[in-house]
Amino acid sequence: MGNIAIIKTGAAGDVVRTTSLLRVLNGAIFWITADKNKPLLPADQENLSVLSVQETFPELKKIKFELVISLEEDIECARLASEINSTDLTGIYLDDNKINYTDSAASWFDMSRISKLGIEKANKLKAENSESYQSHIFSMIGKEFKGEPYKIYTDSSLSSSSKLIGVEKRTGTQWPDKNWWGYDELVNNLKKEGHKVKVFAQRTDVRDYLRDIAQCTYVVSGDTLAMHVALAYQKGCTAIFNCTSPQEIYDYGLLKKITSPLLGRFFYSSTYDKEVIESVSLNEVYNSLSL
Fold it and tell me: What pLDDT is attached to residue 172?
């Protein structure tokens, strides 16, 4: 295959889970993303060039692409996808100055906020969906997802610290219901029992955050970047799903999913709802850990 462009700029966890595509694409791959996400992508893949969305068009318009995989629900990214010189495009594009998507990408984007079917139908499809994100994006390029792992930046000089449990208490601002009430109690109980625990904190360099996770043997979090990075590094992990789809996340035989009994009521809720945040018990999370 010739030159391929992947446009995926958004949430860091979504960028990480898209990297499974790197396992099945041949040719020169140009990944267009946000500056903050560039360090997440592998530094040792010779056929991969990582570009900032802010700097791409003058460089990309000189290149003839065989395929553009456009995955960002953003008007500027849609415009970029439409203006790149390509033989084939799958995913998001600009149609009469409005965001649209190709038929090949309908299984995924019919469930999205830009769905041609309307938001009510999209939410219903989202709730009923049983396929992983990777299954959907692989089908966009005519391939079958067979459990191909993520591929992200790895510091090969690091190794796991013996039985270190990593805990990510934080969530982004978009989905406040991804919070869970019990992290502090879980950490305190684990420490009382003599377990080594690392609570992840903000790092200036995102690669230092990746290194923090790489040194753990087990990770506990919500449906967040930490969960995806743990899976990329083949760590056992527990993730709590209060408002997002557990079915979309492929577990790789590593992930234990704790689903709130109130998920149906708060599915894709963008508000802070104390009831669902407190709906998963401490014992359920603790008992899921592989210590």
Answer: 82
> Is the per-residue pLDDT at 41 higher than 80?
yes
Element (DSSP H or E) covering residue 120: helix 119-128
| Every domain of the chain and the residues it spans | 4-140, 164-288
Per-residue H/E/C for 4-63: EEEECCCCHHHHHHHHHHHHCCCCCEEEEECHHHHHHCCCCCCCEEEEEHHHCHHHHCCC
4-140: which CATH number, 2.40.10, 3.30.2010, 1.10.10, 3.40.50?
Answer: 3.40.50
For the chain, the helix, strand and coil percentages under 3-state DSSP, each to the nearest 5: 35, 20, 45
| Residues 250-260: tens digit of each pLDDT | 999 999 999 99
Please tell me the distance from the alpha carbon of residue 52 to that of residue 34, in angstroms, as a whole number.
5
Chain centroid offset of residue 234 CA: 15
Both tokens assigned to 198: 């690392």
Report which of 130, 134, 156, 160 is spatially closest to residue 236, judged by C-alpha positions: 160
Same fold, 4-140 and 164-288: yes
The highest-level CATH class for domain 164-288 is: alpha beta
d(CA 59, CA 61) in angstroms, rounded, equals: 6
DSSP state of 263: T
pLDDT digits (tens, 9 = 90+) for 168-214: 999 988 899 999 999 999 999 999 999 999 999 999 999 999 999 99
Q: Per residue in 120-142, pLDDT tens?
A: 999 999 999 999 999 999 999 99
